[in-house]
Amino acid sequence: MDEEPEVRRRHIAALLAFTPTVVRVDTRMRIRFEHGATALWLSQVLAHKDVALADVSTDGGAVTISNPQIVLGRYGFRDGRWVFGRDPAAVVGVSRGAVHAAATFSRRGMQVLCPSAPMMLTLAALLARLGIKAQPSAGEPRAVVGPGRVVDALDRLGIANVGAQYHLMRESNAGDGL
Prior knowledge:
The radius of gyration is 16 Å and the shape is globular. Helix 4 (88-102) crosses helix 5. It has 2 domains: 5-11 and 19-81; 88-172. It is 43% helix and 24% strand. It is built from 7 helices and 10 strands.
């Protein structure tokens, strides 16, 4: 996907912030992805001597980052926290990155698992700025876009191809639970 550099920077930051399988040990960070291509993509876009593709297979992939404070500082990583900004590039990039990292799709729509309740509220507010209605959940922190709004939401995020796939899955599985 072609992205403006500032949108890409925020996309990467949110991908890392919302990925639930980030493990920090001393001065290293290991990120496990269910989709091996995402691990490969991340290692290529970070392109730094302290970034290594640890493994990639049909079961997923992992990226290891030595000195994450240095490597990820340009993406907004500060003292173990993420700083995204509020400009239009941040709105689109963070929203895309969160969806990329943590969205699941079902007959109930799109649910984005968030690392905390404040991050859930932040994501819901960012999506609202794009004209996407996302309901914060009452239990586990998730931002939920209803099934009738998913295709439009993904189109507004610039990933209409994902929306088309969701629409096809809903059509083909109308009575099967999706």
